[in-house]
Amino acid sequence: MKKALVLGATGGSGQALVAELLSRGVETIAFGRSQSKLRELAAQYGNPKLLHTAVGDVFNPDDIIAAAKDVDVIFQSANVKYQEMASQLLPLGESVMKAADHVGKKIVIVDGIYVYGRSQMTRVTEDHPKNPHTNKGKIRVEFEKLIFDKKWQHAQALIVRLPDYYGPTSQNAYLHPTLQGIAANKTSIFIGDLNTPREYVYLPDAAKMIIEIADRDESYGKNWNIPGLGAISGREILDIARKVTGYRKMVIPLGKSMISLLGLFDPLMREVVEILYLTKEPLILSGEKYSKRIGTIPTTPFEKGIEETLKIWMQKNETKNHKNRNIVPFK
After folding, report:
1. At residue 309, what are phi and psi to the nearest 5 degrees?
2. What's the CATH code, domain 3-167+200-230+283-299?
3. For 160-174, what is each residue's pLDDT tens digit?
4. Is the dihedral of CA 107, 110, 116, 120 positive or negative?
5. Crossing angle (nearest 10°) for helices 85-103 and 135-147
6. 199, 144, 147, 140: which is closest to 173 by C-alpha?
7. How many of the other CB atoms lie within 10 Å of CB of 71?
8. Per the database record, which ranges form the NAD-dependent epimerase/dehydratase domain (predicted)?
9. What proportions of the chain, in percent to the nearest 5, are helix, strand and coil?
10. What single DSSP character describes residue 107?
């Protein structure tokens, strides 16, 4: 792989992919809707020669086609809002696949685990039944069918499936508000039961695995699990975070009743309720396929990953606060 296009490049997984591609010397086009966010992303790397930006709408295949003409692989990491998944996910899939098919490119679709529904295996392989009991899971099954539809005669697609994740670039993840509150030294929340161990993957590790998979011709036409280090409880995460930061404020666990109540006023929380089963019935991904066909699974220890995430976010908070202190009010 010499050149890649990352759709949704300013998102959590998109930024991690951009960083990993650049670290490997891959010329990378960061694609997104916001020119200002793309500029901020480029500035993080000192605007290197390997990194280019393209402003466009992922729902417009012509915009993607214009950016993808000379690339080897397209990474689709753009996502839709939770509350818009039913109406927006399939149009998103149609757009990116239409573009990839038009230019005859390989395309890697970053997706989640809702298609599996409730776990029927100790460690879920790619062969796990896909008969989900939730609306979001059913939509994701239709999304997968669209990606692998035979009508796409020129594109080669694969899907990578991530569990919940965390990391310095994380944005829309269950653990994000918890660590964000801790980094800001504010009272924080935790979605779900603090005592139930759950799987999380560190985004830099996920990006490494995704790119290794994408770089092999035999990977396409298949689903691939992207496992984390293993399961860890919310209390264990808080213990690590407190040791790193000295944080002593309260962390409030949000169960189904509280989230349902918040959902009366917040459309996002309203949508979270149906997949809360994952916070009580954890689904753990198997990495057997990756280990056998690709190699060693990168596994950053939780202590290191959480520390790196919090330190970066705390530094950003300090920089932001410093800038605010230096603002002279208009008189």
Report:
1. -65, -50
2. 3.40.50.720
3. 999 999 999 998 888
4. positive
5. 10
6. 199
7. 21
8. 4-226
9. 45, 15, 35
10. E
